[in-house]
Design brief:
alpha/beta; five-stranded parallel β-sheet; two-stranded antiparallel sheet; 6 helices; about 40% helix; about 20% strand; globular; Flavodoxin_fold
């Protein structure tokens, strides 16, 4: 039995292509792996606060000296990192906003990329601690950005995941969604087919 952690980040609940792909992924995965456990964290419904001095204090201040706010921030961060640590497969649903990822997803990453928990510093540089996990990233893009210098989404997520030790990462892009019906239908069909293949 495997544990699957799904992270939704689209600001839209209705009409979201990334959410549609996520639902297809979950349905296909459950059909193929009925014993697996799937957990969904929706960052639009339950947003994670952006990195601030309170969270930094929770990380760095000795427990006996922490304020109540710092303790609460640390507990929230611990919950998020515990979910990632427990997962065998990570699924990130990431629409492209302004050439990159939603700020809600960036805030989540700021909580889970934690020194001593998901990576550590060594004499030869940082070392990821989440080896052996797989990740799937389901994206929705208005234009066509694969391989473009304007794509600050896939390179960043690959780097962030590799930094914590997740190197087995597969991207599934639904592209051209705002370029007219022909491009949109083709991009969505290709993404759906790829989801069906991998899940």
């Amino acid at each position: 039995m495997s544990r699957i952690l799904v992270i939704e980040s689209s600001a839209r609940q209705q009409g979201s292509v990334s959410r549609e792909l996520t639902q297809q992924f979950i349905a296909n995965w459950q059909a193929a792996h009925p014993a697996d456990q799937i957990q969904v964290r929706d960052l639009a419904v339950d947003p994670v606060p952006h990195l601030d001095a309170t969270l930094l204090g929770g990380w760095m201040t000795p427990s006996e000296q922490q304020s109540e706010a710092e303790k609460a921030a640390l507990a929230r961060s611990n919950l998020l990192t515990d979910e990632v640590l427990a997962a065998d497969v990570l699924v990130l649903a990431a629409p492209m906003y302004n050439f990159a990822i939603p700020s809600t997803l960036k805030a989540w990453l700021d909580h889970v990329l934690r020194a001593g928990v998901t990576f550590k510093y060594t004499e030869t540089g940082p070392q990821g601690l989440l080896t052996g996990k797989r990740a799937f990233v389901l994206t929705a893009r208005g234009g066509i950005y694969a391989g473009s210098a304007l794509d600050h989404q896939e390179p960043y997520l690959r780097q962030a995941l590799a930094f914590i030790g997740i190197h087995d990462v597969q991207f599934i892009h639904a592209e051209g969604l705002n370029l007219g019906a022909e491009f949109s239908e083709k991009g969505l069909a290709q993404a759906r087919a790829k989801v069906a293949e991998v899940a």
